[in-house]
């Protein structure tokens, strides 16, 4: 299935990148200091908008997600350390968080959503109900429970069978265009690949929809650099990606 302009999908990663470059050069900066696109929708055909992905971190994060643990100790075991944004901005004093995406789609405590999607598409490949819901109405208070500050950034992901392919539509409440897009896309490709393997289909396209897609001022320098310019993954005050800590 190919998306074409005028048929529901007008943008590519290149289009989004160009939009941010134009905003930056025209000084179209929001009052909070960020560059921002409201209602961004594009094909996630490239692994990055700005900056070079850190495969070591991405793979460690997926392994942590697969433990279903809502505590950062498991991330530290997998990566050797915990990015500052997780422990300083998102977690409570015990290291508890909400945004373990593996927990949100695999755990029976959150609806066993991967299994429901798997069975839905197995029984009815034409279904439009194959949705994994990441957030929930209780998030309005849950994000700050027990000292946390972690409002899940992904709203939902829906999967569609078209011929021999399964496509995914990812809907983000809030998405940092650097670390957020890079690492969340790696996770979503992982889930799509697993679903295709379990159902016997090929991987299709990922449509990325972000209600707020933004570039923080600390990443403005990347706009003038090559697309995959190295970025600081030690993340002294940056962390792995946007976990709602900056969503005032």
Number of strands: 6
In percent, how helical is the residue content? Answer: 25-40%
Write down the CATH topology: Thymidylate Synthase, Chain A
Q: How would you name the CATH homologous superfamily?
A: Thymidylate synthase/dCMP hydroxymethylase domain
- The Rg value, from CA coordinates, equals 18 Å
User: What would you call the shape?
Assistant: globular
Mean pLDDT: 87
CATH class: Alpha Beta
Count of DSSP helices? 8
Taken in chain order, the helices and strands follow as: HEHHHHHEHEEEHE
| Poorly predicted runs | 1-8, 233-248
| Protein structure class | alpha/beta
Please tell me the total number of domains. 1
How does CATH name the architecture? Answer: 2-Layer Sandwich
* Distance between the amino and carboxyl termini: 39 Å
Largest sheet, strands/sense/barrel: 6 strands, mixed
The share of residues in extended strands comes to: 15-25%
Describe the structure.
With 248 residues, the chain is α/β, with parallel strands linked by helices. The chain has a single domain (13-224), classed as Thymidylate synthase/dCMP hydroxymethylase domain (Thymidylate Synthase, Chain A). Helix content is 33%, strand content 18%. The chain has eight helices and six strands; from the N terminus they run αβαααααβαβββαβ. Strands 1, 2, 3, 4, 5 and 6 form a six-stranded mixed beta sheet that branches. α2 (55-67) packs across α3. The radius of gyration is 18 Å and the shape is globular. The relative contact order is 0.20.
